[in-house]
Amino acid sequence: MTALWTALMPDWSRAQWWLRMMIVLGTMTALVATGPAGQWPSPVLVGVVAFFAVGGAVAPESAALVVAFVVVLAWWVLGPTDPEHPAVMLAAAGLLLAQVAAMLAASGPGWSVSSRGLLRRWLLRSGVVYLPVPVVYALVLAVRDVPEPPYVWVVAVAAVGVALLAAGALYPNPTR
């Protein structure tokens, strides 16, 4: 039995095992968080997302995790009866956890150990990235009953276009 286990299981460090478990945990948390929002995912959907999440954990640089994220996000759009439920913040945290864990797991060979300084740095960065989530959620709740003006989407698309043009001008591609 030990020989079979050794042959099947990768030779990852303890830190790599933890990171890869966080990939699966974060992705599955984001999916199951739709339950309190009004629609629990079907067992088939859970199985599909688990399959791709585990694939993303085994090979974090592959597209498997992207597929799992797309399925989770699509389920959030199509599934819950209350997409403004507080569980959406849990889903955002789960996806962020999975993404950062995948980035750290893919940044070195399987036997490598991420330094505490690197983990601390990425924990801080993740916290900064997550900071706007409760603020945006509060804004969504605040404007939930306000009728939207007909031009709001045109203004939003124009603002995104201006932001992209500004980012392109401020941070040009250094390989050109």
Summarize the model shown:
The chain is mainly alpha-helical.
Structure description:
The structure is a single chain. This protein has 8 helices and no strands. It has helices spanning 2-8, 14-32, 43-58, 64-78, 87-106, 116-130, 132-142, 152-170. The termini are far apart. The mean pLDDT is 86.
Q: Give the DSSP E fraction (strand runs of 2 or more residues).
A: under 5%
The shape is: globular
Distance between the termini: 55 Å
Number of helices: 8
Q: Which features would summarize this protein structure in a list?
A:
176 residues; mainly alpha
How does the SSE layout of this entry go?
Layout: H1 2-8, H2 14-32, H3 43-58, H4 64-78, H5 87-106, H6 116-130, H7 132-142, H8 152-170
Helix pairs in contact: 2-3, 2-5, 3-4, 5-6
